[in-house]
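Retro notes - structure team

What went well: the batch runner handled both jobs without manual restarts.
What didn't: labels got mixed up in the shared folder, which is why I'm recording both outputs here explicitly, each with its sequence directly above its tokens.

Job 1
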Amino acid sequence: MRRGGAIPARFVDGYPELLAEVSATGRLPGRTELDGLRHLGEQAAEQGHGLRGLVGLYLRATRRAWDTLPGVTGATGAAELRRTGGSVLAAADAAVAALAEGYERAQRLAVRQEEAARQEFIDDLLYGRSDLGRLSERAERFGLRLARAHTVTVAWSGERYDDAHPLARRLERELVGRFGEHQVLLTTKEGRLVCIAPAAETSVPEALAALATAPEAGGPGRLQLAVGRPHSGPAGVVRSYEEALSAIELAERLGLDAAMLRAADLLVFPVLLRDRAAMADLVLTVLGPLREARGGAEPLLETLAAYSAARYVGAEAARQLRLSVRALTYRLDRIRTLTGYDADDPLQRYTLETAAMGARLLDWPARPL
């Protein structure tokens, strides 16, 4: 909302006359008069005038009118003057309260309209709707220059967020304060935090992660971030957002618990899934024999995942699995015996890793292939 200059004198038209009648009769402003003042307050807000200036205008008008009020000039004693003064002050108080009520009502309406326009813009932007030229024009209003390359970061935890959530509001203030209002746009979508920033601002995802997990931010202790790749134009924002969502889906399917996932680091997985039939054949051929193990294939698949995550250091993998090194060695021997593949052989290790990753992507053996 723009701020206007000096408030026109018309905003106090009729007010001195009201005070004159109040001083003469002692009555308070009526409903119709208060409704008119509320309407003036709304007009002042819509035209960009400040509430402080509006209140000051009425207080000055009250002071100017005081010496000419009939109840003051015609007062015959101190008691009558006090009664008149009390009536005038009560009328001024009621007038200012009505003005403020109308002003605040207009502001609340403007905020709701702004929030609705912002949410409509976010929906159109992230879902690729609306004319691209018009979308770029609307983006300027919300601090984005869509001709640039942008990166979208999506943050999520066990809690659902909306634009009124305290964490979302705090993060927006902090990020805008650090990078500028024309550099980042923080919003929420489907219960997740979404941050759109120029690709040149490479530190935004790290800053978002640090702010969201800081104790003073009131955020959750375990917030994960997915970062899409940078792309140009309005369509690029959509693409980066979709990449971040795909990273979230992969994290859920693969059980990835890294604090930050970058779509650029996960490009191998769409490639693996592109030929589902070939991946299913690899999983069944390499890992199918694990179903014959006592307890089924799941414990041995878990062992492969832990061994890989520990960079094939047996003691670390055993610690992660809460097993003895001897028990881990036994499981690795069973994998080698059943599949014919040795996790300690570099070439065979790659085959086992790829097949194990495919099993997690295809939810095997819980879901038959």
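Job 2
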Amino acid sequence: MKNQPSLQIRRGISTATQEHIAVAEIRHLIHQDQAQLILFFCSAAYDLARLAAELRNAFGDTPVIGCTTIGQLGLDGYTSGGISAISLAGDIAAHPFAVDLAAMEGRMSGIADETKRIIGMHPDQRPFGLLLVDGLSLMEEQLASLLYRRMPHLPIVGGSASDNPSLQQTHVYVDGEFRTHTAVFTLFRTRLPFRTIKFAHFVPTDTTLVITRSDQEKRVVYEINGEPAAQVYADLVGVPLEQLGLPTFSVNPLIFEMGGEQYIRAIGGVNPDQSLTLYCTIENGMVLSIGRAVDPVANALAAFDRLREDIGEPALVIGCDCLLRRLEFEGSGLLDAMGDIMKCNQVFGFSTYGEQFDGMHMNQTFTGVAIGTGHALA
């Protein structure tokens, strides 16, 4: 009879602004024997070359992955600045793969073959994938779709790296350095129970629209129902065109439905020609509905209750939470309440520029993977 599987987790946060101090503090907090992976999220305000060197020195041959972010989630709820990290040991293994987004077609073929080989060598373990991707690459849709086509039976969740608003560059850390226009796909395998999770506090209304002219690569919609996109949207939500902005967009996102699932397409802004810039790709002919917000607290509690029905108490939830959700919670005074929910459910994650779930890229959503029946170290 095999031993009961267990998961050893150590968590750490440092708000030090000097790279060597921050990494030293993190290493002290999360070091454990036989760590299988270090996962971290950090402020883009660090000197990333120096931070990379400190990380290499601190963790040696242990695989380390991470990305820049405008904010983190953890046992302190929603935080910002500094660096947060976890180390994982026990009945879990991780295999990171760097993906150059300029050559992802060829690279993904090799990754898929290696992933299938690894899975085949360990039939007693179940696999899942975690994706971290440059959040300003505009390549998330292609990457998520390609991963899903190559490995359709592998559960995959992920998030797009974010940055401090003034820096305009997002980075992924893999193979010992921070990189742009890069993703890291990590294959996990474990005997522990796990479940992927996706939730958003919006429901579709009866107000539908059809995209009639758009630029997929730039994520710009020029026409809806054959008319200027911004004017049509303003008329449908009952707001004057000149008053359109984040407050309206955040509570009236576009929702795409497919296969019984709903995927949010957030609007980023209005352009001078009355086109709309989105945070996800939109295709001509796509039929969408305008979303209506429901209680985000009740929505999150229900999602985690369903999770518990499947795997029991989570030892860890690796979470990818849209930055637009965080901004909404800050504006509505719900950030502490939502942070408490994340704390109670052992979430470790970051504020993203977009989220991935299996073969789809979306916005204003929480995606993640919950691992249960493990033993978490303090």
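One thing worth noting from job 2: Residues 202-293 form one domain.
We'll revisit the folder naming next retro.
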